[in-house]
Design goal:
- The chain has 317 residues and is mostly helical.
- The chain has helices at residues 9-21, 27-39, 52-58, 70-86, 120-139, 165-178, 185-192, 196-210, 257-273, 278-302, and strands at 90-96, 101-106, 218-221, 230-233.
- The strands form 2 sheets. Strands 1-2 form a two-stranded antiparallel sheet. A two-stranded antiparallel ribbon has the order 3-4.
- Helix 7 (185-192) crosses helix 8 (196-210).
- The protein is globular, with a radius of gyration of 21 Å.
Length: 317
């Protein structure tokens, strides 16, 4: 065999891992693929309604609706839909009354004014602040720096709270977003405190889920040491720092209220425990201002209040 055609042990291992990661039952892949199909073009904010049969046809993670496994396929889809609906990500839509038929559609999500998007410099600062926390916790003997807060969290009063696949999937996408469009096995291990095999499997499920329908939004690469599989987003920003990255592909951009609170606490902890240079402090202050403004906007929505002036600082009493 010519030297150029030789397959290294690392390449053989990588191919085996890729094959294992694409098991039909991969739950993170299913959830991301389902949201990708339901979202369509995230920039249009016009969502189509899908029947269950059409969803099962488009999302290959559910398998074929035939034979003795048909009941399991339907049960899996209903389980995923229930979890997504409990988190406000999808909604049921009546298609006809006789016989009663329902479809599924993406739910609307609050849109953020462009002036409150974080730029890449600010995102890099936030990433470094989180990495500093990981380093502190690791030195204290903790297995993970923690990435506990994402766009969703398990409901406290619903049966679906036991299905945390949705939350893990969206936390992975948020991490991909905040990491300048790339994600490695090591970072998943650091943030989630899981083993390497599971982290690698999760990464490949994210890749497969985002590429549902051959959309080609991400590529998968393996480094020479076969440890850092990267998900690399295409450089197609459409004027937005988040277009074609992470949760933006699913029509989710703005942080949830829980995410705002967690990131503000992260910054406050960093100031308490680390020496912050002047240039970093300037960026941290900008990040805080944007986070607080968006948090007030979300609070106003929840309270049914006007939201037109959410960029203004509240009056001092």
């Amino acid at each position: 065999m010519p030297a150029s055609d030789a397959v290294s042990p690392a390449e053989r291992k990588s191919k085996r891992t890729l094959k294992e990661g694409r098991a039909p039952s991969a739950p993170i892949k299913r959830v991301i693929a389902l949201l990708r199909i339901l979202t369509g073009d995230a920039h249009s904010h016009r969502y189509e309604t899908f029947t269950d049969n059409l969803l099962m046809e488009k999302v290959d993670g559910y398998g074929k609706l035939e034979g003795k496994y048909a009941v399991n396929v339907i049960r899996m889809l209903n389980h995923d839909k229930a979890a997504l609906q409990a988190r406000g990500l999808i909604e049921r839509v009546p298609l006809r009354t006789q016989p009663p038929t329902w479809g599924t559609r993406r739910a609307e999500y609050p849109q953020k004014d462009e002036k409150f998007w974080m730029d890449w410099e600010e995102l890099d600062t936030l990433r470094r602040v989180r990495q500093a926390r990981i380093a502190r916790r690791r030195s204290a003997g903790s297995p993970t720096g923690g990435f506990p807060v994402g766009p969703t969290s398990p409901p406290t009063d619903r049966v679906e709270r036991g299905n945390t696949t949705v939350d893990d999937a969206l936390r992975l996408l948020r991490l991909l977003e905040e990491n300048d469009g790339s994600l490695t096995v090591e970072e998943i291990i650091d943030y989630f405190g899981i083993g390497e095999r599971r982290a690698r499997n999760w990464l490949i499920q994210v890749y497969d889920g985002l590429n549902t329908g051959n959309t080609g939004h991400v590529t998968l690469e393996t480094t020479d040491d076969d440890r850092s599989l990267l998900v690399l987003e295409q450089n197609a920003r459409h004027g937005s720092p988040f277009a074609q990255t992470g949760t933006a592909l699913l029509g989710l951009f703005g942080y949830s209220r829980a995410e705002v609170a967690e990131r503000l606490e992260l910054i406050a902890e960093h100031r308490r425990l680390e020496t912050v240079d002047p240039s970093t402090e300037i960026r941290l202050s900008r990040i805080e201002r944007k986070l607080r403004a968006w948090g007030r906007h979300l609070a106003a929505i929840d309270d049914g209040m006007p939201t037109e002036t959410y960029d203004e600082e509240p009056p001092v009493s």
